[in-house]
Design brief:
Elements lengths: L5 E4 L3 H12 L4 E5 L10 H12 L14 E5 L12 E4 L5 H14 L5 E4 L6 H4 L5 H5 L2 E5 L8 E6 L5 H13 L4 E4 L8 H19 L3 H7 L12 H7 L1 H14 L10 H10 L11 E5 L5 E7 L4 E3 L7 H4 L6 H9 L3 H21 L7 H12 L5 H8 L1 H10 L6 H9 L9 E3 L5 E3 L17 E5 L2 E7 L2 E6 L8 H17 L3 E4 L12 H9 L3 H17 L7 E3 L3 E4 L1 H8 L2 E5 L2 E4 L13 H11 L12 H12 L7 H7 L7 E3 L5 H12 L12 E3 L2 H16 L5 H14 L9 E3 L1 H16 L2 H13 L6
Parallel strand pairs: 1-2, 1-4, 2-3, 4-5, 7-8, 16-17, 17-18, 18-20, 19-21, 20-22
Antiparallel strand pairs: 6-7, 9-10, 10-11, 12-13, 14-15, 15-16, 23-24
Helix pairs in contact: 1-2, 7-10, 7-14, 19-21, 20-30, 21-22, 23-24, 24-28, 27-28, 28-29
GO molecular function, one term: NAD+ binding
Keywords: Fatty acid metabolism, Lipid degradation, Lipid metabolism, NAD, Oxidoreductase
Pathway: Lipid metabolism; fatty acid beta-oxidation
Amino acid sequence: MKIQQAAVIGAGVMGAAIAAQLANAGIPVMLLDIVLPDNPDRNFLAKQGVQRALKARPAAFMDKSRAALITPGNLEDDLAKIKNADWVLEAIIEKLDAKRSLWERVEKVAKKTAIISSNSSGIPMHLQIEGRGEAFQRRFVGAHFFNPPRYLHLLEVIPTPKTDPQVVETFSEFAETTLGKGVVIANDVPGFVANRIGVYGIIRAMQHMQQAGLTPAQVDQLTGPVLGRANSATFRTADLSGLDIIYHVANDLGKATPDDEDFSLTDSFRTLVEDKKWLGDKTGSGFYKKTKDEKGKTKILNLNLDTMEYEDQGKVKVAAVEAVKSKPLAERVRSLYTAEGKEGDFLRGVMNDGFWYAAKMAGNVSNRLQDIDNALKWGFGWEQGPFETMDTLGVQTVIANLEAEGRTLPPLLKAMKDSGREQFYAGDETVTPEGQPTKYEAPYFILTDLKKDASRVVKKRGGASVVDLGDGVLLVEWHAKMNALGEDQLRAVQDGHKLVQEMGYAGLVLGNQGENFSAGANLPMILSQAQADEWDELDDSIKQFQQVTTSLRFSPHPTVAAPFGLALGGGAEFTLHADHVVASAELYMGLVEVGVGLIPGGGGTKEMLLRYTDQLHPSQQVGITLLPAVQRAFELIGTAKTSTSALEARNLGFLRDTDTVAMNRNHIIMEAKRQVLALAPGYVQPTPRQDIPVMGDAAMAALKSALYGMHQGGYITDYDLVVSKELGRVLSGGTGNNRTAKVSEQHLLDLEREAFLTLLGKKGTQQRIDHMLKTGKPLRN
């Protein structure tokens, strides 16, 4: 079984977004929906779904051109065409009869080897296929995506008792490798994993909020990032999901689960949905309401549950949160769990509910503890799942608190109490849902989460490590805040090169497992040196930075960069100089230095000029025909253009056509390792280019003319003009030259360094850096 073509039936919000993700992965897909009786366009709903996905924010498509891979159709004229699909997924109305009727039709036309799936969030899979043939039932497996499918990593794969294990394995591998999903194998029970536990947590938080006398905004402060959870926390998440969805899911789960699983809704929540019809973002009002002030600026109003009126409560602060928010996650969790007052009472109630329920669900919703943890992490944006959080607090401490509240321990916690274990996860060991020790298994097919014991860390610095990946490949891994580039990070790259040569390794991977690849240079350090007039030291630092970034290309062994998330400024420059790049599909890459009054100083300006020039025909690489390449680099860097995906990064020239894009970020380090091993045999060290064509004064004159027009028109500020002139001088190859010349890479690097230092010495740049550090926003001076 191999999935090369797909069909999605149902072009609503979820169906169209799933089709978009298939297109992002390069899979041709048919998108079908019903025919509207009064509309002459029989494919109207499917076409509307594609247009909705194209307009979605955040964007559903990684590159809008991928929409061409979606073929709209309808269920009356085109259902037979799904015979070519290797995977058929339904995302229609959540009614059992409608799904059964659809599967009856699909069974008659789908190919006999096609995998069949439902995206239902609550209707049991085994009920949908009653009455279907045995072969159809063997090929049926639930595939529950989370919205938006591009960004939420979780995919619950739900076999029925009839599903062929080979189908589960094939589909799980496809979902993880091709679609980039984090796969959790869920049991076919009400709510599956994430919604069963996540919605329970939301409902219980509402109940505890009412008992503690807190407001939704206060609860969101207590249950958001400070607890290692998403910014949307509890009630903002509810608004985003749709209060009607939570209402229906809670009611359905309340009917389908035992009495001790309390899914009862508060009176205020029922009023919101039943009486007010305030359903969250979809209606513009929920627990929060967006409005605009007299200046047209967006303002968020908070709902007062006592008066059912919206109020401007300003920035809500909670003392318990303010006291710990700067501490590491483990310290924050421990402090909040033991906090005093109504905030502490609320948090203990909510957290204990979550711990008790997750333990009760072990073996029910899924057969592995890590699947439950991953479902909450990947589906709801938590940093730690419930079992990982109990490990942070100490399992015996949690058990004692639950018993003090008079709770009956679920079998898993009873077994943990009897064994005296303090952790569910210890090294390579975890426990079964019955509490018996078992070997920890990484998530299905994922080659990540390096188990770095002492023997694998070859060299360690405060903000970086060199790790042995096995098979003769080393990894340079940065692990500083936002992976800002300072001395530790640069020296670790040098360490890696030296170790490869001294110890006979095949090559080097540059990657890490942080939140972002690198957000760029260490601005506080640069600013403090400039303000202290340490110009010789700064000049040496920039020279060293250039030497280290370019060393990724000009080393005697292959280097592969594995960027993901933010790869900005210096992070982009390291990526640009690697022999090969294995990029996460979700890559936000850009040379953004102009935002702080600088230009790229680590070879980024040079590299983009070189790349764009090389894309011209040789006959165009001379005279005025060279200008488009110069202008293209000038616009990219001068506007701080940042890609919104790896596909766009390729279109912008940050990635080459030969570079690799991996849909699943968890795979990029191991894929980078494979690329090093592929490059290593017969690898020949490149030499710096000496033949880069530049235009000199002619390019500078053209750029100045455009700049003055933009300045006069009010499109750029006075200081934008200063920065842009320095950028133009580098891209021109220097001034004082009235003819096309050819220069070396080093010549352009020297110009970069000179421009960087010149700008850093100016008051306008120092003001921009200071403003960025204080506010996180660029200054338009």
